[in-house]
């Protein structure tokens, strides 16, 4: 099928699969063991760490491997709050369009008494800097804002937010999960203290990611133990880490022209959809990652449209999350000021390195053959 859901996950690259198999079959010993097989695994771990660090623009010692971005995000928040507990700086500031895992953590902490501020976004989905200026004061422990939104692809003003955070004596965390592999990513230049990434969004395996921790920040672990310099307990997931490193190498070796190629495919897909009546594209007026297109076909329910597309062998996704009691409209679109009927209609095409001209052609054929008639019926019914 034509896979247009790369923001959800990507297929592991052959290089990543080969590196994982090698780690499973050859370097399977415990990197903490002092015997030779253990030391062989330890060398592989050190080598993978330095390759991932090079890709992310950080020092190898700044990298803490985790089970993915969700764990990295949770670690960042807990560690930042722990670091300032003694001095009463406990406010968490995040955007209102963060990943559901981080939104859920913020809600849980809030219920436990942690003051939380959710920054509004504008109609294009960018964090409102004026609101951030107001909110980031002397009681803030951490400002946590994603680099690019997973639903809209919109880039957030993280450098400006890092400046505001630091001016107020707070720390800055960037969830860069949707940036890695899609745009140049350089931790040193980002200005953040903490950064999360996940391997499976850049053709690496699932269940592995990293938290980058700026040198000098004594990170309290979420999982206590002596691995990762006492910053993350548990025997290292060496196959996952080796696959992650191979995926980073591959992403680093991909020419910048390929990002432009993906942007051109996305733009073609978007422009052709936009010729249909009632189509609205989100985030089009601001900077976005190259691969993401978030739009709605009038008020046609996203699930209905996705079903039609899937019958034509094209898979994409909606921003809506399935919750008990029904499908919830996307919190991202609601935060952008969209009414619930629009938020329920929003769907996302996300392209990847393996997307081709032919894929876009097939997706457009499906849109024009299977979705456009529904849209015309809806327009006729409204007249
Ligand atoms: N943060 C963002 C922005 C994401 O898009 C995702 C992907 O699902 C995550 C965090 C969670 O990553 P993981 O699946 O590695 O926990």
Nutshell version of this structure?
The chain is α/β, with parallel strands linked by helices and 383 residues long.
Supply the number of structural domains.
2
Oligomer: single chain
- CATH level 4 superfamily of the largest domain: Type I PLP-dependent aspartate aminotransferase-like (Major domain)
What is the distance, rounded to the nearest whole angstrom, between the alpha carbons of the first and last residues?
A: 37 Å
Main β sheet profile = 7 strands, mixed
| Average of the residue pLDDT scores | 96
Order of helices and strands: EHHEHEHEHEHEHEEHHHEEHEEEEHHEH
CATH class designation of the largest domain:
Alpha Beta
Q: Please name the CATH topology of the largest domain.
A: Aspartate Aminotransferase, domain 2
Cofactor: pyridoxal 5'-phosphate
Pfam families: Aminotran_5
Protein name: Nitrogenase metalloclusters biosynthesis protein NifS
Family: Belongs to the class-V pyridoxal-phosphate-dependent aminotransferase family. NifS/IscS subfamily.
SSE diagram, text form:
Elements: E1 2-3, H1 14-25, H2 36-56, E2 63-66, H3 69-83, E3 91-95, H4 100-111, E4 116-119, H5 129-135, E5 140-146, H6 158-167, E6 171-175, H7 187-190, E7 194-198, E8 209-213, H8 227-230, H9 238-253, H10 256-273, E9 279-282, E10 292-297, H11 302-311, E11 314-315, E12 317-318, E13 321-323, E14 326-328, H12 331-335, H13 340-345, E15 346-350, H14 357-382
Parallel strand pairs: 1-11, 3-4, 3-5, 5-6, 6-7
Antiparallel strand pairs: 2-8, 7-8, 9-10, 10-15, 12-15, 13-14
